[in-house]
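F.,

This is the one I mentioned.
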């Protein structure tokens, strides 16, 4: 019995895909280095939501690894603006301080202390004209650097604090970081104008502004005239791009005033967009909606909703890439006025899984997919299989349009397809003469492996199959890059949507690879600082040898610049050929390193007596050099070596 169980386990392992190895990336994606300035933005931290105590510190940790010039947040630090909750948020954010990463915060509707008897975050909406209190907010954050608090500025961040500035943390302000101006506004009262009478500092201010829109107009226009990039950070968006059919009912049309014509905050949606267009604002960074979305406002100004930093997702339906409901933060790179943004997901350690073929024949292609498990434990809206790919939402179709098969798939029946396929495969792979107990063991093992393989992919497909009306252009793609450890064995295939920042020799954003030479390569996927690698084999034909002949030629002496053949290789099947010139244990010239196809003639590799020195090809100094030949594939490598003497150059 024990032997039978052991056999089943071993067979299950044989049917299962190869294991992947996870690590912290030394070279994250998106890259941490590059031209221009790097910033981070996120919102909806809600550290005291069901999973906020896990999600929010993870966002702080992962964004801090990038060492941005500034982290900006758009509000909702906890559930209510009490001293305890605001202080707890500040404690979590203190992880940035030893890294030397500055942060500046905006204010959300849950950051004001709500009047007694009013649900947290609803003051101004349910109590027109009565706003939440800023007293705790001003007190708790007064010790933060100006212009957020009253303490001395972070180095390199202006403007300097004036003697006329009122005491306590500010609810609206601007900060200059190099050639970028960040303007923070307060619409936590469910409107901008509704908050004007409850501001810190109060209006009229020292610039003579009497309202926040006036403050925005003056300071955004000044940034534009100075050739600076101008961003706005505020809590509530002006539009809600989401599919409204499966959201949390309390969050429908989650904009200023809820777009209710009777609400005083509703006109501010249009007013704000008009001022932003007129003054040349380059981007608006928002929260309020728990998820990751974007849209274009008046004047094609981009609006980024980065509400995945900790709060429970605002959905009663599907989650994932095709729906915008997932957790992460946004990287913002500004270079010469050009703005590039990436939405970076967060995962549990080792939480990325790669799926795809474990063997790819030469000249054949294979698509690899990846899924990441996010650190959601308690909330029902778990993101256990975030698809690391471009969004590809399914659109609603009148009458269903999928038929019985489609209904089976949509209702989750597709989850049994891999299991059934593996069961059938087990039967087909089991020879007819095999004893019945062994055939049963193979079938059970492949079924068990199939159930495991379904895992994250099945969850992902279930979410993907749910239709949505959220526009494709409002769904950000999770940052990721696929790479090969050996492009001579397994090479990336470029696509029309590939990221221009990638290394085209080794990387692709979309996971398509082509087998080149027989051998083994690693396929990795990196998202943020989380990376996972799995092994892939490109097999040779087993009925043929790889190498017919391989030798290093006998060259008694060589004098630059005369070329002499130093290696000859005759192949039967493709193989990676490498020919090096070495001296004193160091490679001084690579003569050949390529995936070589077999041909009717032998491959000849010549050397002209030149080596790389100080970044240039120069005549080799007189002496003895070694020619190393290596032919590698999926079999035992072939190695050859011989010494050649280089003579002094004539003249």
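My design for it:
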């Amino acid at each position: 019995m024990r032997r039978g169980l052991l056999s089943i386990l071993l067979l299950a392992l044989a049917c299962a895909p190869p294991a992947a190895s996870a690590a912290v990336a030394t070279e994250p994606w998106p890259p941490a280095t590059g031209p221009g300035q790097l910033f981070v933005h996120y919102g909806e931290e809600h550290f005291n939501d069901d999973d906020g105590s896990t999600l929010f510190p993870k966002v702080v940790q992962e964004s801090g690894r990038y060492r941005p010039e500034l982290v900006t947040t758009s509000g909702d630090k906890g559930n209510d603006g009490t001293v305890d909750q605001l202080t707890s948020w500040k404690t979590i954010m203190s992880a940035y301080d030893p890294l030397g990463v500055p942060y500046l915060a905006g204010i959300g509707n849950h950051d004001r202390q709500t009047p007694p008897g009013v649900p947290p975050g609803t003051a101004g909406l349910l109590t027109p004209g009565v706003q939440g209190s800023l007293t705790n907010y001003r007190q708790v954050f007064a010790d933060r650097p100006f212009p957020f608090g009253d303490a001395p500025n972070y180095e390199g961040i202006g403007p300097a604090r004036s003697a006329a500035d009122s005491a306590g943390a500010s609810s609206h302000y601007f900060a200059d970081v190099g050639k970028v101006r960040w303007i923070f506004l307060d619409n936590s009262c469910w409107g901008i104008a509704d908050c004007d009478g409850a501001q810190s500092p109060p209006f009229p201010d020292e610039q003579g502004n009497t309202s926040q829109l006036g403050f925005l107009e003056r300071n955004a226009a000044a940034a534009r005239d100075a050739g600076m990039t101008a961003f706005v950070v505020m809590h509530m968006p002006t539009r809600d791009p989401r599919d409204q059919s499966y959201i949390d009912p309390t969050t429908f049309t989650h904009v200023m005033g809820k777009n209710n014509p009777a609400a005083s905050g509703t006109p501010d949606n249009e007013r704000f967009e008009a001022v932003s267009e007129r003054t040349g604002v380059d981007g608006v960074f928002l929260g309020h909606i728990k998820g990751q979305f974007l849209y274009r406002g008046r004047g094609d100004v981009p609006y980024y909703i980065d509400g995945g930093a900790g709060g429970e997702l605002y959905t009663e339906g599907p989650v994932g890439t095709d729906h915008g409901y997932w957790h992460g933060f946004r990287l913002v790179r500004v270079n010469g006025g050009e703005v590039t943004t990436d939405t970076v997901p967060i995962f549990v350690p080792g939480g990325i899984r790669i799926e795809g073929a474990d063997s790819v024949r030469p000249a054949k292609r294979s698509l690899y997919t990846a899924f990441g498990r996010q650190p959601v434990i308690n909330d029902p809206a778990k993101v256990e299989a975030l698809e690391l790919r471009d969004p590809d939402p399914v659109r609603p179709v009148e009458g269903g349009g999928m038929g019985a098969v489609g209904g089976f798939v949509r209702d989750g029946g597709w989850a049994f397809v891999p299991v059934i396929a593996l069961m059938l495969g087990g039967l087909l792979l089991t020879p007819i003469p095999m004893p019945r107990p062994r055939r049963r063991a193979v079938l059970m093992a492949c079924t068990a492996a199939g159930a495991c393989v379904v895992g994250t992919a099945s969850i992902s497909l279930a979410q993907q199959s749910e239709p949505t009306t959220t526009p494709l252009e409002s769904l950000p793609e999770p940052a990721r890059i696929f790479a090969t450890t050996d492009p001579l064995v397994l090479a990336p295939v470029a696509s029309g949507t590939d990221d221009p920042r990638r290394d085209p020799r080794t990387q692709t954003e979309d996971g398509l690879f082509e087998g080149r030479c027989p051998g083994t390569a690693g396929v990795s996927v990196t998202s943020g600082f989380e990376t996972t690698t799995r092994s892939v084999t490109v097999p040779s034909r087993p009925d043929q040898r790889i190498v017919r002949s391989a030798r290093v030629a006998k060259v008694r002496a060589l004098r630059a610049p005369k070329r002499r053949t130093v290696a000859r290789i005759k192949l039967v099947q493709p193989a990676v050929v490498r020919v090096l010139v070495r001296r004193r244990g160091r490679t001084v010239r690579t003569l050949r390193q390529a995936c070589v196809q077999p041909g009717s003639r032998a491959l000849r590799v010549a050397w002209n007596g030149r080596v790389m020195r100080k970044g240039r090809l120069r005549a080799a100094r007189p002496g003895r050099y070694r020619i190393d030949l290596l032919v590698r594939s999926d079999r035992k490598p072939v190695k050859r070596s011989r010494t050649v003497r280089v003579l002094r150059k004539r003249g």
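Residues 38-315 form a domain with the Purple Acid Phosphatase; chain A, domain 2 fold (CATH 3.60.21.10).

Talk soon.
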